[in-house]
Amino acid sequence: MLTRRFAIAAIIASALCTFVAPRPGLAQAQSKLDTVPKSNSLRVGWAVFHPYIFRDPKTNQITGFSIDLVNEMAKGLGDNVKVELIEDGWGTFAAGLQANKFDIFPGAAVSLRRALAISFSEPYTKQIYSLLAPADAAAKATSWKDFDKPGQKIAVVLGSTTDSYLGRAVKQAEVVRVKTVPDGLLGVVSGRVNAYASTTDSLQAMRKQQPKLAVVGGPGFATSVFAFALPRNDPQWTTWVNEFVREMKRTGRITQLLDKYGMDHSFAAD
Description:
D-Maltodextrin-Binding Protein, domain 2; two-stranded parallel sheet
């Protein structure tokens, strides 16, 4: 009799466990690999970064290496998927990904600090960091270190990876943190700062707009690789984006875009 009671109790307990409703918050969030094609919209965060993303002064349209790349991505996600551009900032885009403000953020430098909050795809370009300065001053310099002197001011976008690298490299010059890339460029042109720090490809693109400025030669103060920034805890989305990056490399699309925007093939990531 006792054994029979235990058996009945075990059956009842098993049934109760089977029909207990899951607690709120335990359900796994749907992957962006599912939601993006269903919504027909790839939400892309962006901030100015020549020649990756910038507003063409002639057409007022947002263009650049990264824009072409995300348009290719949208095609791969479905015939009806369109890119929706959402402006953000280099100091805040990680929070934007965490808050589901957008699905992806292209052209982000991979760093350990950022990786604490977000994920990254495999890299598709790599860069050296240097300075943009008045042409006469750049011609006299052997490297960026000639600007790292008392009384010198170097501008950099606040919250960018360049900001982090420059802050560690500079010992004597004053680092002037600005909100946007145009602010930094204007600072050099107006003489408020002696140089502006960014990646060499970005500086070369800006030099075309400002022929009186030049990129400082010699070794840079840092190097980095660039990738798509992605939300954490979505491995399916990350896996698909990684495959997209590999296909862009295999098909030669990355080098085609480097050519289109006047960038050297050495900027392609391995």
